[in-house]
Amino acid sequence: MREEFQRTHILFGSERMATLANARVAVFGVGGVGSSAVEALARSGIGTLDLIDFDTVSISNLNRQILALYDTVGRPKVEVMKERILQINKEAVVNIHKCYYGKENEDAFRFEDYDYVVDAIDVVTSKLLIAKKCQDAKTPLISSMGTGNKVHPELLEVSDIYKTSVCPLAKVMRKECKERGIKKLKVVYSKELPKKPQLTEAMMEEAKASGRRSIPGSTAFVPSTAGLIIASTVVRELTGIE
Predict the structure, then answer these.
(1) Disulfide: which of 16, 69, 127, 226 matches 239 by Cβ 3.0-4.6 Å?
(2) What does the DSSP assignment read for the chain?
């Protein structure tokens, strides 16, 4: 028994801890939701983690992303997250891919090689592609819906995409999943009505310049809670613990 994980071992036992140590989990997106999910997975003893994200840490990430510090601003998120994981579990295998996942590189990832996949990105086309790939590979997947403009982490829940309501992103995903023949999709979502963003003129100009309609507000507690719920789901399903 490794001392780092003895408190988890007390709950899970040797066989389940061995399952986690031998598991390979891919996390697409290591932002507010994904970074918290990755850290919880690493602290649970997951042996191999594949991290996929094209972005770098920015000042505006400091309010909610576990990897965001003044010292990490400007650095690739996957590199920062890898260093953090290895400070938690020095025996972990961490494969990083600094890229945007989409149609142009969909065949660069073998979804059948993963024991579980986490989708924590916010681009609908990529989310749908991941869902279809996982369905075809019969690889378990959990996908994060919208956490922006929300302030109540206690309203987050796990459900199938076709049983969701209220969440605007989930509404789009329901329609698109049905059209693409995606029969089921486990998601973390919230029934909280999104708050209206309080944007300054500078923020509106920033959104316009980047081609977005708006910049979502976010907190330290809703995305991170979604990430922890995701990690809990992955660990419990891999080990079969009730």
Answers:
(1) 16
(2) --GGGHHHHHHHHHHHHHHHHT-EEEEE--SHHHHHHHHHHHHTT-SEEEEE---B--GGGTTT-TT--GGGTTSBHHHHHHHHHHHH-TT-EEEEE-S--SGGGGGGS-GGG-SEEEE----HHHHHHHHHHHHHHT--EEEE---TT---GGGEEEEEGGG--S-HHHHHHHHHHHHTT----EEEEE-SPPPPP---HHHHHHHHHTT-S------SSHHHHHHHHHHHHHHHHHHT--
Task: Determine how many CB atoms are found less than 10 A away from the CB of residue 164.
Answer: 20
Show the tokens assigned to 230.
């995701």
CA R_g for the chain: 18
Buried b (16+ CB within 10 A) or exposed e, 69-107: eeebeeebbbbbbbebbeeebeebebebbeeebeeeeee
Q: Which pTM value belongs to this model?
A: 0.95
Angle at 124 between CA 34 and CA 192, to 5 degrees: 70
Question: pLDDT by residue (tens digit) across 115-164?
Answer: 999 999 999 999 999 999 999 999 999 999 999 999 999 999 999 999 99
Torsion sign, CA atoms 167, 127, 197, 71: positive
